[in-house]
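This section describes the prediction task in plain terms. A model, or a person checking by hand, is given the sequence of a single protein chain and must write out its three-dimensional structure as a string of tokens. No templates, partner chains or ligands are provided. The sample shown here is typical of the held-out split.
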Amino acid sequence: MAMNAKEGQAEVILVGCGAPNRGMGWYHGIQMLEGRCESASLDYVIEPWFLGGGADSDAGKEFAEWQSGVEKSYGTTFAGSLADIPEPAAPRLALISGRTGDNPRLLTESIAHGAKCIYLEKPGAPTVVELEQMASEAEAAGVEVLMGYNKNVCKYVAKTREFASANPGSHVTFVTNNAYENTAESLGECFERNAEGMLKNMVIHELALLVSFYDVSVDNIESVTADKEFSEMQTLPGPSGKDFTDFNKIKFTIKTKSGAEVSVQGDRCGGSDSFATVADTAGKEVFRYYMPDEDDKVMVAELEKKYPTAMPYFFTQDPDYVTVKERVAKHTVDGKPADGVATIGVAVETLKVAEYLTPMLQEQLK
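The expected answer:
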């Protein structure tokens, strides 16, 4: 069976797949191949590393085995470069999920090769300057760029905001965890692979929530205070031998000039769930909602059984990844607004906030 976009579907190019069971791009691909995003047809996979310099590595051989199965089962075309694919046969959506440092170039190439819309994984670019240039380039070409900030459409975020708005004076804390081993080797690999830093990577989803829903911007931040008891910053060698300094866990509270107050907590070694809490005016927790909730845990268990070696966080956020992709793919086809999906404008402000906060929090934790 060939995967070619049908009427009402976007022709999707996955740009930057990564390794099976580890790459976020790979999991995006799996969801589309399984037909879970009805407006998306995964017609092309572009993977420069595993179809190039990394082909002979163990991970490259694993990728080749997966590629062979996908080509046979779905008819998806694999290539090492966007230059290798034909002109669009349907409204083309480029889903860019490569390394952050490659994204500016990949966006330029996606526009040059006929993308009508671009789904850009967070944080979009290594720096604000580069992301602003990308936004301008896309606007000049008439190409819309929407962001993979899936927590903007999450159930636990909606439930928490709803509860907090019904309880004036309450305080919200967004908590995010990853399941890395708490070892120098595991965290050093994490620090190097995500060299843009924790606030620009793992915690960027929470910062996007603050920008989207709590009026947080660099100009509107009155103060930021690190929780020194919880937070920890380390300098560790990555696989290359080079040292990287980053937070392995961080908690902070932002107060805005317009009167909002909200906290964020992230722990690289805290597990695989995310949640939010609401505290009353006395500081006592009165509400907590998890992702996944009890209903979703059944689905997570099924996915863990199906993909036993995949990254655990893929499964806890699985329905939200589907929601964002489906809304962006449908928008690519019909042009109607992708409800709740963050724009590149939100991403620029979010990255500005990350760049503003990082040195301030580092200083407080010295």
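For orientation: The longest helix spans residues 344-364.
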